[in-house]
Amino acid sequence: MQARTDWDNSPHVIRRQVRRVLGELAALAKDQPVSPEPHDDELIAWLSQLCLLVNLPFHYLIPAESMLPANSIRLFYVNPNWLQALVDGACSLGRNASLDLTHDQELIDAVITQIGKRVKAVRPLLQNKTVTPKELEDEVQAIGGFLLRSPLVRGWRGLEFKALSSQGTSLRALRIELLSDDVLIGLFEGVPYTLEMAQPPEGFFFGFNRINGEFSKRLRDLDSGELLSESDSVEVVLQNKDMRTIDVYQTAKNMETYFQKEVTSAEFALQMIKTPYIGRVIRKDE
Amino acid sequence: MGESIRFSQRCEPPLKAGTYRIQVEQVTSINCRLASENTDFKVTSERFFLSPDQIYSVYPPREAVGNYAECLPHIVLNRRTLPWERALLKGQSHMPWLALLVFDETEDIRLHESTVGKALQAEAGVYVPSLLLEEHEKPEDPCTYVHIPTKLLSELLPYPEALSLLAHGKGVSLDRKVTDAAVKDDWFATVVTNRFCLEPDEDRQIIRHTACLVSLEGYETCLASKQSRIDTLANVHTARMIVLANWHFSMARRDFDYGSAFASLDAAMLSTPYHGNNEQIQRLCRLGYYPMNQHVRDGSQVVSWYQSPLVPYDEPKKTVKSVRFADQLLAYDPELGMMDIRYSSAWQIGRSMALSDQSYAQKLYSWRQSNETLARTSVYQGLLSMHLSSPLHDKGVRDWEEQRSIGYSFVKKARDPESTGSQASAKKILIEQLNERYKTLLNEVVSDASPDGLG
Fold first, then answer.
1. Chain B residues whose beta carbon lies within 8 Å of the beta carbon of residue A66
2. Measured between alpha carbons, how far is B60 from B80 in angstroms, rounded to an integer?
3. pLDDT by residue (tens digit) across A218-240?
4. Could you tell me if residue B414 is left (phi over 0), alpha (psi between -120 and 50 degrees) or otherwise beta?
5. In the predicted model, is pLDDT for residue B140 greater than 50?
6. Which residues in chain B are closer than 8 Å to A152, comparing Cβ atoms?
7. For residue B239, what are the β-bridge partners?
8. What residues does each domain of chain A span?
9. Residues with Cβ < 8 Å from B101, sequence gap 6 or more?
10. Distance (Å, rounded) from C-alpha B174 to C-alpha A128?
11. Residue B193: what pLDDT?
12. Which of B12, B25, B93, B114 is deepest in the core (most CB within 10 A)?
């Protein structure tokens, strides 16, 4: 405390000197490489989570339900100034003496630059992946994303998202998380113009074609997984029509005869899955 | 994105459930016998109850209503080895010990949520799997079972060669998915049923279906051959099966699948819907502003405009400025006579979130503290070295003139050879002040300069 009152009484020149030194410190901190280790710089790690709006109360994101009605998807930009105010608020704890404010004013820009690099590591670390320091060299310039509210979120766990910029390049995902049972947020490095939303492959389901009581399945190439032509179908054998059961073994035997190759449950699964559906949201600017 | 899937026939664990013995024997060339050593151990896995986090997903979705006429329901399990952890029949290790059975509402199949003890209790006319409890399994543990008419079961239950085809492993990439704390592995196990669903005759009608993942332990004789199945179930009318997972869905004529759910999505940029005619409000709403009640400092209440961090336009980045309190970030629109509270709200929630995390707050404090100490120390040390190394003649002092450093004036005054009496006392005071400062400074450096967290 002695040092603090001391500071407040110190002449203007010394204060200016200290401010200059803090400025130099900030310049150093700004260019410092960011460590991808989760426990290395916990302050920056905490703040970069904050900048991905993790744990931010939902009504701060969507103040009114009408902005995100049921069955809707909304694209957005993330306002960088909002994030800066958020970070400054989070750094304002214990900002009591004028020295503290001087310190924060000099360093906040460096902190935000560091966060801009560190945010790229948040998602890989959540996925237990390693991040190389090289990936974190550059600062994220802009963040864009989407909010999805749909029964798709609940019903199809593991949805896959791919965002493309206006030039068609694929954007790095910074955060894809559930906010509730049926609301999902996606944040990307850059501004998504096209959003591809694919059915989760682990949830691909077994299907067949049923035309006039005839059950059949169009086959796929065993190596590439591509669908073969319409005529390359096999009969899906019923075991008991009234019981609605399928004779899986005979159906697999039919496939074996077609391919002249042993069909195990892996090949059988490949043959039986329904062609997955990819949904695409494309932004058209007027 | 479909190219990222891999299938495997099965994912057998290195050791199936059972009791194992390790026997160690030493054979030496010297003339003595060493005692051999035995250790028994058991490999077990859950067989009466599956915790819900083992179930990754199901299809058709839980409680979904839609047309699933051309699909075979399935369940995806988190642990890839789960369906192959128990070997039921000799020489059939590729056969899963789980099967997925689907019933429609006309079959009136009811689930009983009970305990392990009750599930294994014998009952007249009911085939009950005869299983012995392991040491760690207690009769009061929860267990769900189902009663199935034997006539139905003997039709539904697949034989080993079909069962093997109805389970497979799936490997996918987690790169583009929601980060999910429960999912650490990108391989899953899938169990499929061999029965498709009952389609309603009318448009309005829906038929509820129940899907059960059942354990086949205790049903070995029903699987071995057709004859032994008939023999086993000859004298009973009902069979009891242990259910590890279950869910319901309903068949209807209307589609509810991925495609139709996706097509019904309404896509737009995020903004506030507004149907009035006020042009100014319309403009603000289009930018995503939303009117909010605000309690201002003097206690009165006004309406102000809030904007979420998610905006429908590209907001240019401004230079950041640290402030003392949130109100410094309020913006007033004199034309509208209303306030823009977006940044002050952001600042305030950032502060509140930081306050709620004590360890963060402590780290922030020590970080700032150490930076300040560092800065002050270096300034004072610069001063000190300047003071000590300054040559007696004025030339050296003049060298520092350009720097306009604080030391310059101090040193100049302190070393002024032309000093008169009053100046001499001024010099004395100055040196005293300086010494005082160094003293506090050095104390401070000793007490709180720690290198941790610098920079």
1. 272-273
2. 20
3. 888 888 778 888 788 888 888 88
4. alpha
5. yes
6. 258, 261-262, 265
7. B127, B148
8. 2-154, 204-272
9. B148, B156, B157, B193, B195, B211, B212, B214, B241
10. 11
11. 92
12. B12
* B68-95: pLDDT as tens digits: 888 899 999 988 899 999 888 887 888 8
Question: Angle at the Cα of A45 (from A42 to A47), degrees rounded to 5?
Answer: 110
Tell whether B348 lies on the interface with A, counting CB pairs under 8 A. yes
| Per-residue pLDDT band at A275 (split at 50, 70, 90) | confident
Distance from CA of A106 to the nearest CA of B (A): 9
Interval A246-257 mean pLDDT? 89
Its sign, for the CA torsion B1, B6, B11, B14, is: negative
And the tokens for B105? 């509402």
> Which percentage of chain B shows pLDDT scores above 90?
23
pLDDT for B224-240, tens place per residue? 888 888 888 888 999 99
Tell me if B258 and A84 make a contact (CB, 8 A cut-off): no
CB of A38 less than 8 A from some CB of B = no
| DSSP sequence for B127-194 | E----PPPTT--TTSEEEEEEEEHHHHHHHSPPHHHHHHTEEEEE---TTSPP-TT---SEEEEEE-S
Residue pair B250/B207 in contact (Cβ under 8 Å)? The answer is: yes
In angstroms, the separation between the Cα of residue B32 and the nearest Cα of chain A is 53
Using alpha carbons, select from B372, B56, B296 the residue that is nearest to residue A6. B372
The reply to whether B179 touches chain A by the CB within 8 Å rule is yes
Which two structure tokens, joined as six digits, stand for A244?
């609605």
Chain centre distance of CA A123: 7
What is the pLDDT confidence band of residue B259, given thresholds at 50, 70 and 90? Answer: confident
Contact (CB, 8 A) for A271 and A219: yes
